C-alpha cells in the first residue's frame, strides 16, 4: 500500500469520513473480486449450511483497527446484512445509546 494512500485513509478515519474510502475505485475492485471469490454468498451463513446472497463485503480486521489491511483480500469477507451486524456489536451499542438518549425527551 502506498504511503500517501495510507495517510489519506488515516485522516479519513480521524475525520469520521470513511465514506470517501468506500467510493474509491480501488475499494470497488477489491470488493467485486471478493464477491466473486465468495460466489456472492454470505460466508457465515454458508458455514452454517445456509445459502444467503452476500449484501456487502466486511473487513475481518476492522478498518479503524487496522487500516493497513483495507485492500487485502485475506482480510475481506462477503456477508449478508444480518451476519454483518453481528460482526459489529459496537454499532448496536451506539444505536442503543442513541435510543436511550432519545427516550429521555
Ligand atoms: Zn449471513
Ligand atoms: Zn464490517
Write a structural description.
- The protein has 105 residues and is mainly alpha-helical.
- The chain has one domain.
- The chain is built from six helices and two strands, in the order H-H-H-H-E-E-H-H.
- It has helices at residues 3-14, 19-22, 25-37, 43-47, 81-87, 89-103, and strands at 56-59, 76-79.
- A two-stranded antiparallel sheet has the order 1-2.
- The mean pLDDT is 90.
The first-to-last residue Cα distance is: 47 Å
Kindly name the structural category.
mainly alpha
Strand order of the largest sheet: 1-2
Residue runs with pLDDT of under 50 for 5 or more positions: none
Counting copies of identical and different chains, the oligomeric state is: single chain
Bound molecules: zinc ion
| Total count of strands | 2
Mean pLDDT, to the nearest integer, reads 90
Spatial extent as radius of gyration: 16 Å
**Whole-number total of structural domains:** 1
The major beta sheet can be summarized as: 2 strands, antiparallel
Secondary structure tally, helices: 6
* Beta-strand fraction estimate: 5-15%
Q: What is the share of helical residues?
A: 40-55%
Inertia-based shape: flat
Amino acid at each position: 500500500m502506498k504511503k500517501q494512500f495510507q495517510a489519506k485513509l488515516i485522516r479519513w478515519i480521524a475525520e469520521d469520513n470513511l465514506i470517501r474510502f468506500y467510493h474509491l475505485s480501488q475499494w470497488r475492485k477489491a470488493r467485486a473480486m471478493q464477491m466473486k471469490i465468495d460466489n456472492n454468498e454470505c460466508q457465515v451463513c454458508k458455514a452454517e449450511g445456509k445459502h444467503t446472497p452476500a449484501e456487502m463485503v466486511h473487513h475481518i480486521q476492522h478498518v479503524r483497527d487496522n487500516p493497513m489491511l483495507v485492500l487485502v483480500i485475506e482480510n475481506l469477507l462477503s456477508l449478508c446484512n444480518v451476519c454483518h451486524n453481528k460482526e459489529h456489536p459496537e454499532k448496536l451499542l451506539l444505536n442503543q445509546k442513541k435510543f436511550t438518549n432519545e427516550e429521555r425527551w
